């Protein structure tokens, strides 16, 4: 993100990038099958790594640059979330893992996830396919052992969505599937004092929930510290994407994405690694779309030259200059100096 000030060496970045699964972009067919950013069953039309590299910019920390010319409309790459979670209003309307909307074929298959009953947690969630059940085991087997009523109510009553993502990540970490520093590569937000107080309350609730469940105390004590909670939430706050599913086909993307602006159709939120490295521009040359699940698709909005930086717009680009500057300063902590802002538009 533009406000990134934490510098990393190229080799460190490369190592991090290797851990992230960036799918090569299929050009003519965009499959949205769960768990298959690169099109399960479709032969890749252009094998090889995506045409981007992450490097330091002159003034805005990390950025994403084209390694070859990219054509307008081209799918640059796909990215799977590090953590995703349905929004409270869509909790049982979308897949609990990939956020795909429940279709007519919907069935509750969470009971089958570990082949036993749900014990003290009678809540069932929808998983759209076996390919979402399998990776969900890494958080769900921990999650289902605890009673989340208090924590979930706390989030729902206050309209909080990010603590639900922290809850999911905590379950993934406690299960041993991912390291506790999974989101450390992301730039953290500077948190105001009142946010810190709110977080202490959320943290106490999260800890209480785990303690009541029969989970190993030592493990929770080791992983789930207040500092961990604050570190994670500070990163999720500034890097989470609101997911609005476009649906339909690859060809419909431009028109559908425009139609979604301003409507409240967010099915959930997610954080990604590479998409978080894109800097902001009020007149962007790239954008992120979601077809029918939480896999982010980075698309070129116009022709991009080799070596050019790819930038996305973090906010509603139709706002005027003052409104944009205000929201970028308050929400993202930087003053925008893009060409559009400098021109006074
Ligand atoms: Zn799914
Ligand atoms: Zn700007």
From TrEMBL:
<dbReference type="Pfam" id="PF00856">
    <property type="entry name" value="SET"/>
</dbReference>
<dbReference type="InterPro" id="IPR050869">
    <property type="entry name" value="H3K4_H4K5_MeTrfase"/>
</dbReference>
<protein>
    <submittedName>
        <fullName>Histone-lysine N-methyltransferase ATXR4 isoform X1</fullName>
    </submittedName>
</protein>
<dbReference type="InterPro" id="IPR001214">
    <property type="entry name" value="SET_dom"/>
</dbReference>
<dbReference type="GO" id="GO:0005634">
    <property type="term" value="C:nucleus"/>
</dbReference>
<dbReference type="InterPro" id="IPR046341">
    <property type="entry name" value="SET_dom_sf"/>
</dbReference>
<feature type="domain" description="SET">
    <location>
        <begin position="50"/>
        <end position="315"/>
    </location>
</feature>
<feature type="region of interest" description="Disordered">
    <location>
        <begin position="24"/>
        <end position="51"/>
    </location>
</feature>
């Amino acid at each position: 993100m533009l406000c990134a000030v934490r510098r990393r060496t190229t080799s460190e970045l490369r190592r991090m990038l290797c851990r992230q699964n960036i799918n090569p972009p299929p050009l003519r067919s965009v499959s949205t099958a769960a768990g298959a950013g690169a099109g399960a069953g479709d032969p890749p039309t252009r094998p090889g790594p995506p045409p981007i590299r992450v490097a330091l910019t002159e003034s805005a920390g990390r950025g994403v640059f084209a390694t070859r010319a990219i054509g307008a409309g081209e799918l640059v790459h796909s990215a799977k979330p590090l953590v995703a979670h349905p929004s409270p209003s869509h909790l049982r309307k979308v897949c609990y893992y990939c956020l795909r909307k429940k279709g007519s074929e919907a069935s509750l298959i969470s009971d089958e996830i570990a082949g036993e009953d749900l014990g003290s947690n009678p809540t069932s969630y929808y998983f759209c396919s076996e390919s979402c059940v399998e990776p969900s085991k890494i958080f769900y087997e921990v999650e289902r052992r605890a009673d989340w009523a208090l924590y979930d109510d706390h989030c729902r009553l206050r309209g909080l969505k990010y603590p639900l993502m922290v809850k999911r990540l905590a379950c993934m970490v406690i299960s041993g599937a991912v390291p506790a520093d999974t989101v450390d590569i992301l730039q953290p937000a500077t948190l105001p004092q009142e946010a810190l107080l709110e977080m202490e309350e959320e943290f106490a609730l999260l800890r209480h929930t785990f303690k009541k469940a029969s989970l190993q105390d030592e493990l929770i004590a080791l992983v789930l510290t207040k500092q961990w909670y604050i570190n994670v939430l500070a990163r999720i706050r500034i890097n989470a994407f609101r997911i609005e599913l476009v649906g339909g086909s690859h060809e419909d993307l431009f028109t559908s994405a425009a139609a979604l602006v301003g409507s409240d159709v967010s099915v959930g939120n997610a954080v990604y690694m590479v998409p978080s490295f894109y800097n902001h521009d009020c007149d962007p040359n790239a954008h992120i779309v979601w077809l029918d699940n939480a896999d982010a698709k980075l698309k070129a909005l116009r022709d991009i030259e080799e070596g050019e930086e790819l930038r996305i717009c973090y906010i509603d680009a139709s706002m005027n200059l003052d409104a944009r500057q205000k929201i970028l300063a308050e929400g993202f902590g930087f003053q925008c100096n893009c060409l559009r802002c400098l021109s006074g538009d």
